[in-house]
Amino acid sequence: MLKAAMELHFETITLLLLIAAVVAMLTRRLRLPYSVGLVAAGIALTFLPHAPHLELTHDLLFTALLPPLLFEAALDLDWPRLRRNAPVILTLVTVGVVIAAALTASGVHGLLGWPWASAILFGVLIAATDPVSVVATFKEAKATGRLPLLIESESLLNDGTAAVLFTVALTFAAGQAMTPWGATVLLVKAVGGGLLCGVVVGLGALALVGRTEDHLVEITLTTIAAYGSFFLADALGVSGVLATIAAGLTVGNVRALGVISPKGREAVEAFWEYAAFLSNSLIFLLIGMHEAERNFGAAWGAAVVGILLVTVSRAATVYPCCLLFAGSHWRVSLKHQHALVWGGLRGALALALALSLPEDLPCREPIITLSFAVVAFSVFVQGLTMRPLLGRIGELPGPEPTQK
Which tens digits make up the pLDDT trace of 291-338? Predict the structure, then answer.
């Protein structure tokens, strides 16, 4: 029976990857965001007879598909540029996430009547941004300015912040006694332990990489760094998300010192670009397939309220946080602030956290439904309008002049 189930999953995944490849070609030709095409294809699949089906679970998202996305994004971040913009980014991923979560939680508690515990959990899990289509737009246009760095690094790091705060909120929701000191200790342990696990595993992998010039072994060791850091942190009860991010930053920036061979560097970059493509393809196809199964008709009012709250909370976070740096050399221009607000899409992490909620939690199903609604709005509305916005504010380079 297990063998039959595994064969069924392999067949399903193979078919989904074929669909993803076709969608990738079509969206590139039509100049549409890849994630939009995938979600639309996932929705369309549910209306076909004998449509492939793969259950969207917390384990699939969190332990199989999320680490490659986190590791690949961290691998590409330029540490010197990240450090120069650190005050702005750290403010957005700490103070910003807390403000956004608090405003959203207060809104759903007051307007939808959810219990505080459920409202706080939703506010925290939906605070993590996932601008996959925005980053893909930048890469396709070969944009290299400050804005791509701000959007991608903020998104990557606030994933870690949201995941850690979610652990604290879940402890509170479970009815366990939680003093301010206890919450602080839990936060420090989750953050510090996760970062330490990531750095240690990343350096350990690089120590082995330095002993070989076989690019296949180098790819294997970076794969171990991505998943090994996540699983080690999870086993120790600290943040696996932050561990994988730290491992990616360590490998990505130390490799520049020549630890990885030139051939290995090219192979590693190509492999992780494909791994991220693979994970994103499955995630957004599955999101589309499960969006179609959600009964939004019965909850459209709550969905509208949730979308408005999340959008307004994002704006009420970005503008005040950036205002703190208005008189310094870290100043963020107003047009960049607009892009940060509208580019704060939601995606895989929010759904992974929502699906991990305990079965007996009050409002569990409404939280999951509302999370899917916000993600759908992010993909179809924000995702489709982001390229025109970036073009309007001059952040996408124009076409290269033709040679005469």
Answer: 877 777 778 899 999 999 999 999 999 999 999 999 899 999 999 999
104 with 123: CB under 8 angstroms?
yes
* Strands (DSSP E) found in 181-299: none
Comparing CA positions, the residue from 196, 154, 198, 188 lying closest to residue 168 is: 188
Rounded CA-CA distance 81/75 in Å is 14
Cα distance between residue 171 and residue 365, in whole Å: 19
For 24-44, the pLDDT digits (tens) are 999 989 988 889 999 999 999
> What angle do helix axes 146-173 and 66-76 make, rounded to 10 degrees?
140
Asked if 158 contacts 130 with a C-beta cutoff of 8 angstroms, the reply is no
Burial of 348 (0-12, 13-18, 19+ CB in 10 A): buried
Q: What is the pTM of this model?
A: 0.90
Q: In whole angstroms, how far apart are CA 3 and each of 9, 10, 14, 221, 237? A: 10, 11, 16, 29, 32
